[in-house]
Amino acid sequence: MLRLVAGHLFGGVLLFVSLSLGEAASPRDSAVPEKIEATSPSPSPTPQLYSAQTLAELKQLQQAALASDYAYRQVAHLSNNIGARLSGSAQAQKAVDYVAGELKALGLAVQLEKVMVPHWVRGEETAALVQFPGQAPGTSQKIVLTALGGSVATPREGLTAEVVVVRDFDELQSLGKEKVQGRIVFFNYPYDRRMAAEGRGGEAYGEAVVYRSDGPSAAARLGAVAALIRSVGGAACRLPHTGATDYAQNAAKIPAAAVTDEDAELIAALAPQGPVKMHLLLTPQELPDAVSYNVIGDLKGSEHPEQVVIVSGHLDSWDLGTGAIDDGAGVAVAMQAANLVRQLGLHPRRTIRVIAWMNEENGLRGGKTYASEHAKQVADHFAAIETDGGAGHPLGIYIAGKRELKARLGPVAKVLQASGAGLLEFRDEVGADINPLAKLGVPNFSLIQDSRFYFDYHHTAADTLDKIDPKELAENGVINAVLAYALANLEQPLPR
Ligand SMILES: [Zn+2]
Fold it and tell me: Which parts of the chain register pLDDT below 70?
């Protein structure tokens, strides 16, 4: 982690040096502009990016954000007073009304944009090993698991079948239909805790989450009657992680659940000793799609009100916890950007648009609907920011878009460096709800957040307010406020 940060900081310093040279360079100095072109191929060697006034205001926003508990109060209300906010639930609707009211109270022009969302409801979820080597007569071993979002139900009385353990898709294929048919396939692919400990939690998650999304259909194609995965995340204390599965069109839908790490170890230890049979009961229901909303609040720009900078998080959450880190925190720090601009009496040149997205977790309907309904105004979407990586200490900004975007953010990174968040890094995709806009050419940004512990709680019953450190949340608010306001006042277009 330390080594990684040191490398990033070094990169940040280099960037800053080259920009400083760029600002100071005279046109006759041929050596320096060449260097600048390597990192910043903008048409003018000395474009002004931010006015002196804007730069001073960014520092004011930074200080105000560090001193503010507004974001913490917002995420506390969303998680404690409203609670879990799965799409289609009464709590999700309450959260829509609440955020709309809070944005109105800030003086924003608020609209609810309708989105039809899936309405999946978790039911009972129990499992036990009913046959296994060494079993005392008449006993069973309880297995702790949770249904994957979107899972179909087992028969009403549950199902009982032998468990076949595979590590990955290749091992499943090598077994073939004969050894899978009629059985429960268990994908025992571990979340890489060491990778997470190095600060690469997102990568560890990405490697394992394919079994959650694609595992059930892969098992169904070989005739499995149910699919289990090892929970995708680092939780100990026998906590299962939910998350959406993605049934393929060309496969039967079979019940799907995630077992805890501890139960994964248990099954994996017993299976090589002899046949292991499980009784599994899942009773989720898929109700008709429900009406819900993206909550949109505009702080109108003074010069280019039609041009918008989106700052956002997603309002829906999984149902097991109270959706504090995923993603009440992201919504709260998006609201914070508008709150601080209002509090300091600043006037952004472009519109700052706060969006609380609906249905990121099990359908992405909010982000997709917005991009399709606003496709005609895509040229006026100057940039989009989304925070959806928890509330850990931020290190800087992820960028998805043209390489030239990095130079545009150089002076912003210099300001953010003072609160420990001066990194600028590229990723192909930085926010699930804003990615449909990225595909239409809108530059996308998100926060680089400490990911070491995020996946210990994410999508579990332990995603609760106590996991948020108010100081670290405030640091995330700094980036949203500074970045949104900087983009709203940028003197140059963003390359796209
Ligand atoms: Zn999320």
Answer: 1-46
